[in-house]
Amino acid sequence: MFRGINRLVILIFVLSAIYPAGVFANSAEPPGFTIIVSNPPADLSLYILFPDEQGVAPILLSKEGKGWEAYYRFYYHMNPTRSKNLEKAVLKVQSDEKSFQCPLPTTTFKMYNNLLTLDLEQESLKIGQSPLRVPLLVSMRVVFTLIIEGLIFILFGYRKKDSWITFFIINLITQGGLNVLLTGPDLANYWVIAFIFSEIIVIVTEAIAFASLVKEFKKRKAVLYAILANIASLIAGGLLISYLPV
Predict the structure, then answer these.
(1) Exposed, middle or buried by CB within 10 Å (0-12, 13-18, 19+), for 97?
(2) CB atoms within 10 A of CB 125
(3) Least buried of 159, 181, 183, 209, by fewest C-beta within 10 Å?
């Protein structure tokens, strides 16, 4: 069994080295940055303010809400001067509850597509995201997937301890990897392509893995399970990513 698991891990690493580049090769957005805000007021708006001498009107950042988060995006082509040098610009935060300004970190402009986090309570803007954010979101989606695929596993009649150990090992590797890959608000509208393509890879990988490692029933049943379970998680996962933070 352990030899089979070792082969599975090697196969997954090979596949992961092949497909992420292909998934995102044509998915680049215009350069800019995204600001994450947790539990923002419904009327919260973010603006980029330029120095008076530039004579540039404030730029309203586009907004996308997902669950308890909102993503505010700025692209450099939105700047009438077409300049990527915004070091003298500031972020204006405006809502009925509060209004304040904070400087944009200088490292914001040193990456193609940067990620920042706005803390409304501290009235601060920082590069990056909370260290717990990605583990929390990935764990939430993996648990949700395990519940769906676990119920289908039961419906297919799998009861042996070895079958369930294999089930958890396979899914923790494949679904964990998939959800790490598809985490980040900079995915924008391209997540659908990435999600479907990645799920196809997962279906093939899991079909091979379950057929090779789960011995409780015939291989055809294991392959059928892998296909149906992943189609179910594809549909449910698509809905989850559509409405919850990424």
Answers:
(1) exposed
(2) 20
(3) 159
Q: How far apart are CA 147 and CA 143, in angstroms?
A: 6
Give yes or no for a contact between 222 and 184, defined as CB atoms under 8 angstroms apart: no
**Mean of the per-residue pLDDT values of the chain:** 81
Residue 46's DSSP bridge partners are 93
Pairing of strands 90-94, 45-49: antiparallel
Specify burial of residue 63 (Cβ count, 10 A radius: 0-12, 13-18, 19+).
middle
| Amino acid (1-letter code) at residue 243 | Y
> Do 237 and 118 belong to one domain?
no
Task: Report the alpha-carbon distance of residue 184 to residue 179 in Å, rounded.
Answer: 10
Which pLDDT band holds residue 188 (cuts at 50, 70, 90)?
A: low
Q: How far is it, in rounded angstroms, from Cα 27 to Cα 173?
A: 25
Domain that residue 85 falls in: 32-127
pTM, full prediction:
0.73
Contact (CB, 8 A) for 167 and 145: no
Q: Which of 11-25, 154-168, 169-183 has the lowest mean pLDDT?
A: 11-25
> Cα 221 to the chain's mean position, in Å?
32
Residues 119 and 188 in one domain: no
156 and 120 in one domain? no
Provide mean pLDDT across the span 117-134. 90
Domain final residue pick, 85, 111, 127:
127
Q: How many structural domains compose the chain?
A: 2
Backbone φ, ψ for residue 58 (5° rounding): -55, 145
With a pLDDT cut of 70, the percent of the chain lying above it is 78
Residue 21 and residue 136 share a domain: yes
